[in-house]
Specification:
The protein is mainly beta and 169 residues long. The protein has 2 domains: 1-32; 40-168, Immunoglobulin-like (Sandwich), CATH 2.60.40.10. 8% of the residues lie in helices and 41% in strands. The protein has one helix at residues 16-29, and strands at 4-6, 13-15, 40-41, 44-46, 64-67, 71-73, 78-84, 89-96, 105-107, 118-119, 121-123, 126-131, 137-140, 145-151, 156-161, 164-168. The chain has a 4-stranded antiparallel sheet, with no helix packed on it.
Length: 169
């Protein structure tokens, strides 16, 4: 049996069980929190969140800035610096000659991808590449570079990357 209690300050009556039920519904609706889609295996993060935040929502693409000479002379050393253009994503590793996919793992303590043996120097959110070209012309840097970023929540993502350069006499 439900009792109706008339509140003296209100011109209508409220059923107490209904009031409690509505309070619970409003409270729970404000507490909606999605679960993280970041996965771990044997203490390593699976690189499965590219293009998404930790809740699976799409994020803007992460772009990279290349700083280096406009043209390079044949057989002269050229040094390029590459960095993220988004301060929420720090560049922490650059590797090449390996396959990285959304099933690859990364060691979250040293930023190492287990099947990648060759890498570039990365320091303070900047990766350094130095080389001496032997031919003139327009080129794309090869092999393709795999960049690893870390966001403010400590989540890692991978990005494939290359850049163009011109070599003159």
């Amino acid at each position: 049996m439900i009792k109706t209690i008339a509140l003296e300050t209100m011109p209508f009556s409220i059923k107490i069980p209904s009031l409690i039920f509505l309070t619970i519904i409003f409270t729970l609706s404000g507490c909606k929190k999605s679960a993280s889609i970041v996965e771990y295996h044997n203490g390593m993060q699976i690189l499965n969140v590219n293009g998404r935040d930790i809740y699976g929502e799409k994020i803007e693409p992460i772009n990279f800035i290349v700083l280096g000479p406009d043209t390079i002379k044949v057989k002269e050393e050229a040094i390029f610096r590459i960095a993220s253009d988004n301060s929420n994503f720090k560049l922490v590793e650059g590797v090449f000659d390996c396959q990285v996919s959304e099933t690859s793992l990364i060691d979250t303590t040293n930023h190492h991808v287990p099947n990648c043996k060759k890498g570039f120097i990365v320091k303070n959110d900047t990766m350094y590449i130095a080389f001496r070209p032997q031919l003139t012309g327009e080129f794309e840097y090869q092999p393709e570079i795999i960049l690893i970023t870390k966001d403010l929540k400590g989540v890692f993502r991978f990005h494939t990357f290359t850049f163009g350069f011109t070599v003159i006499d």
